[in-house]
Amino acid sequence: MKNVLVYCRQGFEKDCAAELSEVASSKGFYGYAKVVPDAGYIVYNFDQPDAGETLIQQLSFNRLIFARQIIAVNDVIELEQGGRVESLLEAARELPLAEEIWIETADTNEAKSLSGLIKKLEKPLRDGWKKSGVLRNKAVGVRHHVFMLDGEAAYLGVSYAVCRSEFPMGIRRLRFPAAGPSRSTLKLEEAFLQFVPEQTRESDLTEGMTAVDLGAAPGGWTYQFVKKGIHVIAIDNGPMQKELMSTGLVQHEKADGFKYEPPYTVDWLVCDMVERPIKVAELMANWLASGWTRRAIFNLKLPMKKRYQEVSLCLQMIEAMLRKAGVGYQYQIKHLYHDREEVTVCIMVR
């Protein structure tokens, strides 16, 4: 397959295209993006016959900022009423064998109107895939995606376990906890699940650790640590939720988050302060370079235009500061589902 289809948040299509263009060219693939404003996805077209498949298998999903899902596709498939399954199945025979098939749409209000049609198509599609031998248990890590544009057209593509989301439409849906101080708590919960590997989650988020939460009030991010038995130094001039304070795990200090310095090295630093992204990035890099924390998760609030370029500048500055300090690290960055006009960054010192 020669092209790449990327799902993204509605309104971030240009940023998604700018990022993929830079990433693809760095791997030696050149093409152009088809961008429709507010579509919730982009298609990147390449000249090389297998460019789409080859490229996505070379990428790291948690380093693709604006991609909720990424699949390799060919051209749009026209669907005839009464013959949709047959049209898709004919195209599927040209794809690599897969172990499963997903039927999806963009995350837009317009696409939600297709939910009824998708329910009608799901069983016939899966039955057709199985009977034709396109689905095989041995095709581990390969998934087919039917991406419905409307009732008359769809993309049919493939994803690989090495670089993709494991959630339909690339959306990890979380339930707001009854005791949560604010809805922002879901941002840190999603970040932990996205960035901290399951095999190390217990050791990376251990009871008895210490975290610093800059701009903590009313305690949405602090809450995620407290429920794991982690002590939190909450830095904010505003009030914290009373229930959190009653746990005995929160030390509230009324101070400026940009001036506070910890008395000792902490296990985690988190920050969701509303400030210029470059200023937050510099603060986070300073904490890591100074050895004040081993791990950091923070949000970068984005401007309305050239968001990818702004994030790139922030990452470049962080890299320069940590390299100068001789700090080895690994970073991940994502525009998470529970983020809005912001992206979430995770950096762990090696």
Automatic annotation (TrEMBL):
SUPFAM superfamilies: S-adenosyl-L-methionine-dependent methyltransferases (SSF53335). The active site is at K301. S-adenosyl-L-methionine binds at S184, A217, P218, G219, G220, D236, D256, D272. Residues 182-336 form the Ribosomal RNA methyltransferase FtsJ domain. Its EC number is 2.1.1.186. It catalyses: cytidine(2498) in 23S rRNA + S-adenosyl-L-methionine = 2'-O-methylcytidine(2498) in 23S rRNA + S-adenosyl-L-homocysteine + H(+). Keywords: Cytoplasm, Methyltransferase, rRNA processing, S-adenosyl-L-methionine, Transferase. Residues 84-160 form the Ribosomal RNA large subunit methyltransferase M THUMP-like domain. GO terms for molecular function: S-adenosylmethionine-dependent methyltransferase activity. Gene3D superfamilies: 3.30.2300.20, 3.30.70.2810, Vaccinia Virus protein VP39. Pfam families: FtsJ (PF01728), RlmM_FDX (PF18125), RLMM_N (PF21239). It comes from the Bacteria. Its main location: cytoplasm. One of its GO terms (biological process) is methylation. It is found in: Cytoplasm. Catalyzes the 2'-O-methylation at nucleotide C2498 in 23S rRNA. HAMAP family: 23SrRNA_methyltr_M (MF_01551). PANTHER family: RIBOSOMAL RNA LARGE SUBUNIT METHYLTRANSFERASE M, RIBOSOMAL RNA METHYLTRANSFERASE FTSJ DOMAIN-CONTAINING PROTEIN. Monomer. Belongs to the class I-like SAM-binding methyltransferase superfamily. RNA methyltransferase RlmE family. RlmM subfamily. This is Ribosomal RNA large subunit methyltransferase M. It comes from Marinomonas foliarum. The gene is rlmM.
